[in-house]
Fold:
Amino acid sequence: MSYSVSAPVKSAYDALVARGALTPDPAQVEAVEALDRVLADLLAARPRGLRALFEKPQPVRGLYLYGDVGRGKTMLMDLFFAAVPFAEKRRLHFHEFMDDVHSGVSAFRKSARGRNEDADPIEAVVRPMLKSGLRVLCLDEFHVHDITNAMLLDRLFGKLFAGGVTLVATSNVTPDGLYKDGLNRQLFLPFIALLKERTLVAALPSQQDYRRLKFSGQQVYAFGSGPEVDAVMDRLWLRITGGVPGAPGSVESIGRQIPVPLMAMGAARFGFADLCEKPLGTRDFVRIAHQFDSLVLDNVPQMDRTRSDAAKRFILLIDSLYDRGVKLAASFAVPLEHLGADDKTAFEFQRTLSRLTEMQSEEYLGKGLRDAVPLEEPASS
Structure:
């Protein structure tokens, strides 16, 4: 098999190894080859020429990749998603996807059509996805806790698969471990069977926690300003990304795009002004915390009453990162105890300072990401 042409995921992986950004890992290589097989099947099943106007793509079996935290699942998904050469693809955190589904269900139920007794809200949510031509759905951290999600997944994915959508998912647990010990779990078992039928289930049994290696022994905060501090942050960024400089990107939130100045290898780099001096809120910060496992934040200023709005956003940002377990590297103009806040945010800011102190500890840096929670209460369906 010639990986240079017919295996673009393997080619991208090999390029990272050659650059020194990754250490060769046999378990990762097996997962890469499985991803390339999915991509090859997708391309083979895609109608070409005039046939594309009249024929639907043939269904393609996807991949469900599971393994412990920090083994590189999200990085491999990044490589796969970038290698898919057509636009009819979507990449989301699983809980973001389900949040969108519940929002769609809620909106449909409030509509005139949704008040009909025979109305099917799942059909109403799936139809626009299929109409857009969606072919590949990539979902990170597939994990089912909520009974509402558990009860609708079989119908939801049954319709997506019937419409020709291929699922590529990452998870910390096997399909049989989803919704384990959940209420009425026997009603969830048909979805597990469907998932096994429509995806190849593959383990990523790597022995190395790469996420922990990024931060081992590192001082993740720098204080002051000027070229020396900038150089410290540049070195931290390259360590976190394995030497990959990164490129601009974006995070989708509530139908709009939040610009990301630099992103690479599951990490993002922002300036304080990019996040805290823009009209962003909790939902936006949760989206960012879902998408990245590490965040570098440059030029956090001393905050007083002239920066009250920015201080409030900074509090929300740190809360979102902390709750998710995202690793933070940051440069501050002054020591943490002098960051300050006005009277309106003084109490909340003390909690933020406590969390910032914890977030630089070896214990925090050594832990994996925490399970995500839905962004809003799910609507019944």
